[in-house]
């Protein structure tokens, strides 16, 4: 049976929103690199406001607009500027005194909400903030391809700052997550599937996500929402405290001389992740 063509609801400079029956698709883009940045945050939240205004949209699919890239990672140039601003203004944070939630945290919170089922259709490079967006989704499907998924922030003298330190462990197990975080390990799609980082490896992530969305749309909305809430309840107490500690630790490291130098090297075109090719795990 031929499926209807998705109808466009919004297109900005970073996000395109379309809907297909009971699902909406957020396609993310920022050529040439596919970084997420402050403008991405604004358009992502604007698109979600449009979704909230349509009660019959029950599933949200997040994917990359351009072939081979979901979200490569958060824009390191933006992070470097924020780090320098902290130094210039002598703003200091710590795990015990964290900053308030950022626009990126609001994006992941919208995805993690039980009000709608969120599905990450990972169709390409998905590292750092890109993987944190995917980890905030309730379901994750990876497309066959030559790309990597991981949280390599430690190579920049940083830690994941958008929930990655907490949610990775719930996906792959806390022992495996700790090793991946300490080593900055990035994995191929098949390995991501084997370790539970994604739920399935498929030929076409968006097509598969839409097929799942059509199946879920036939389920009772209240039942789906309760299933998500109950699943989250098992970890929310620890995760909430962990998220707060993560925000503080990230902000503390963001202004550190080591991280600032590493980010400057990245933005100058130097290879920032020297171990990326040697710390790739394959199935």
From TrEMBL:
It comes from Cupriavidus lacunae. Belongs to the enoyl-CoA hydratase/isomerase family. Gene3D superfamilies: 2-enoyl-CoA Hydratase, Chain A, domain 1. This is Enoyl-CoA hydratase/isomerase family protein. One of its GO terms (biological process) is fatty acid beta-oxidation. InterPro entries: ClpP/crotonase-like_dom_sf, Enoyl-CoA_hyd/isom_CS, Enoyl-CoA_hydra/iso. One of its GO terms (molecular function) is catalytic activity. Pfam families: ECH_1.
């Amino acid at each position: 049976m031929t499926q209807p063509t998705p109808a466009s609801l919004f297109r900005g400079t970073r996000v395109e929103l379309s809907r297909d029956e009971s699902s909406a698709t957020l396609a993310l883009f920022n050529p040439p690199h596919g970084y997420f940045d402050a403008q991405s945050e604004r358009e992502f939240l604007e698109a979600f406001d449009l979704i909230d205004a349509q009660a019959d949209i029950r599933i949200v699919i997040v994917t990359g607009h351009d072939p081979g890239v979901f979200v490569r990672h958060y824009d390191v140039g933006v992070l470097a500027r924020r780090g320098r601003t902290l130094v210039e203004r002598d703003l200091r944070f710590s795990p015990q005194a964290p900053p308030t939630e950022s626009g990126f945290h609001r994006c992941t919170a919208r995805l993690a909400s039980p009000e709608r089922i969120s599905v990450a259709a990972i169709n390409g490079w998905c590292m750092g903030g890109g993987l944190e967006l995917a980890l905030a989704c309730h379901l994750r499907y990876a497309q066959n391809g030559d790309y990597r998924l991981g949280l390599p922030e430690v190579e920049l003298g940083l830690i994941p700052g958008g929930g990655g330190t907490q949610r990775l462990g719930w996906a792959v197990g806390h022992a495996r997550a700790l090793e991946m975080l300490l080593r900055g390990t990035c994995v191929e799609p098949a390995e991501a599937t084997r370790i539970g980082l994604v739920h399935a490896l498929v030929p076409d992530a968006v097509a598969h996500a839409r097929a799942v969305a059509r199946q879920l749309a036939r389920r009772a909305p209240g039942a789906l929402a309760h299933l998500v809430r109950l699943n989250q309840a098992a970890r929310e107490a620890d995760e909430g405290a962990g998220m707060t500690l993560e925000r503080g630790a990230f902000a503390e490291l963001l202004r550190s001389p080591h991280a600032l130098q590493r980010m400057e090297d990245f933005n100058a075109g130097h290879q920032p992740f020297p171990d990326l090719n040697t710390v790739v795990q394959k199935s």
